[in-house]
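User: Please fill in residues for this 130-position structure.
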């Protein structure tokens, strides 16, 4: 990956000196980068350790991701070239923006449909326009 940068999330900067008894301990996790991109940026994390954000190539194009259970997943777009995840709630629903086929900014909510239902998998729902 050369000089590729990856976001390291779920870490705490500890002050110099001994750690106090009962102090919270953290683990640094490399979340990775989506294929074809050179950078990743995290913008939201929930209590389950799921993370959303976006990968980029130092140009305007960015693509939203969801990191969950050790896997970095491309969330796709609403038909345009760009998307970014900004926040994630306790049950793993991601909100963010995407360009549509007409190159207009759209807001999305991405929800998990439970396995066994007629349409299991991920779905992007458009909740607001303009």
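Assistant: Residues filled in for all 130 positions:
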């Amino acid at each position: 990956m050369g000089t590729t940068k990856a976001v390291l999330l779920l870490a705490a900067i500890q002050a110099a000196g001994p750690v106090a008894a009962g102090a919270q301990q953290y683990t640094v996790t490399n979340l990775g980068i989506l294929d074809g991109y050179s950078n990743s940026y995290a913008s939201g994390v929930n209590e389950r350790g799921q993370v959303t954000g976006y990968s980029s190539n130092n140009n305007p194009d960015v693509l939203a991701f969801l990191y969950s259970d050790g896997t970095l997943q491309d969330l796709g777009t609403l038909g345009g070239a760009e998307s970014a995840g900004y926040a994630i709630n306790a049950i793993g629903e991601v909100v963010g923006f995407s360009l549509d086929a007409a190159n207009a900014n759209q807001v999305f909510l991405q929800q998990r449909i439970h396995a066994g239902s007629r349409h299991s998998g991920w779905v992007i729902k458009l909740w607001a326009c303009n």
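For context: The chain has one domain: 8-128.
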